[in-house]
Amino acid sequence: MLVNKKTTKRIAMTNVQTWRLSMVAILSVIFLFLAIILAVSLGPINIPFSETVGILLNKLRISLGIMHNEQPTIVITEVRLPRVLVAALVGAALGVSGAAMQGLFRNPLVEPGYVGVSSGGALGAVCAIFFGWTKISSWFLPGAAFLGALVAILVVLSIWSINSQRNIVTLLLLGIGINSFFSALMNIMIAASKNEQELRSIVYWLQGGLEARTWGHVTLIFFPILIGCIILCLFGRDLNMMLLGDEQASSSGVNVKATRYIVLILASFITGSAVAVSGIIGFVGLIVPHIMRFIIGPDHRLLLPISAIGGAIFLILADLISRLIIQPIVLQVGVICAIIGAPLFIMLILRTNKGMNAT
Q1: Angle at 145 between CA 140 and CA 146, to 5 degrees
Q2: Cα–Cα 20 to 30 A to 36, which of 58, 82, 170, 345?
Q3: What are the transmembrane regions (predicted)?
Q4: Using one digit for the tens of pLDDT, what is the confidence trace for 203-249?
């Protein structure tokens, strides 16, 4: 009888937990759609929500038999919607990458940029602007940024693989060193800029922004980020095991070395894809996973996909604030993320230190 009571209690707790997590997932998707509708409705030209929904349904080939004016249709479908979708994809990439990296390093204060990916992408973009490659084609900018991010992670992993102490702390320190080196190279190019327009373009890109994003940018990053996020989410169980330590994970059947390389490469790949069209946007991959972990717990099987949705919502709303806060001036979304993220980051550090002191 005692065993039956314990079993019944365990099943009841599991059911409650499953129901709670299901509600979190459903609410996250609902909030994502609401954020998209809000972001494409508001701006210098405000469009009623009902009309926005109708236009979006028409875009999805779902006709309600209602005719819409040409101006709001163009504003939504050709100006705001591509920008919002780019924000959602970039936010999802940074959110899921941050959750994966924090699990891999077993540290909630880590984000994708710490292993040199963001600075590598930034260096590639700065090179494209400085050497005039963007005059050949505007697509040289995202292309160079992605290539720079890829080179950065390959350099870090190559140095780490030949090092005698291949622990996760060494990898993080190598990333910090590469960040400093790339930042120095970028500062040289900024100092040697030939004209004010070139300098403004470099600084503007380094601040992170989503201005003038088109359907071409959506197409460019949609499949890399979507496929990368899906594959990364499949490593949720392995990341859970690795939280217990490498020995415990190995005894549970996890190939620690292979998993570490694959997760790092995947996280770097989707972060590089995001940086290629948005510039450097900080704090999303740091703050969002921590908030989601506080809401749903540390299980990476759920934390990774929820962090992707949370990152998309966070960046969509941050971009909306950047467009509305001091109209008609549009701030860089990277600036807004820093204004929101920096205080939260400080609170996170204080909370972590408080927990360590209590222990």
Answers
A1: 100
A2: 345
A3: 21-42, 81-101, 113-133, 139-162, 169-192, 212-235, 261-290, 302-322, 329-350
A4: 877 888 888 888 988 998 999 999 999 999 999 999 999 888 878 88
Q: Which residue has the tokens 């999802």?
A: 92
Contact 356, 228 (CB under 8 A): no
Least confident of 5-14, 134-143, 276-285, 342-351: 5-14
Tell me the one-letter amino acid at 325.
Answer: I
pLDDT score at 305: 93
297: left (phi over 0), alpha (psi -120 to 50) or beta: left
Question: Tokens in use for 329?
Answer: 């001036």
- What are the pLDDT digits (tens) for 160-182? 878 766 677 777 788 888 888 98
Q: Give which of 232, 273, 267, 263 is closest to 89, Cα–Cα.
A: 273
Nearest-angstrom CA–CA distance, 294 and 242: 20
Q: Is 73 exposed, middle or buried (0-12, 13-18, 19+ CB in 10 A)?
A: middle
- pLDDT value at position 37? 94
Give the angle 292-323-132 at the CA atoms, nearest 5°: 100
Task: Give bridge partners of residue 329 from the DSSP assignment.
Answer: 326
Q: DSSP H helical segments within 134-255, as ranges? A: 140-162, 168-191, 196-206, 215-233, 236-242, 246-251
Task: State the CB neighbour count (10 A cutoff) for residue 232.
Answer: 26
- Rounded to whole angstroms, the Cα distance separating 186 from 128 reads 12
Encoded tokens for 118: 């963001």
Phi then psi for residue 345, to 5 deg, are -65, -40
CB atoms within 10 A of CB 157: 18
- d(CA 221, CA 214) in angstroms, rounded, equals 12
CA distance 2 to 18: 24
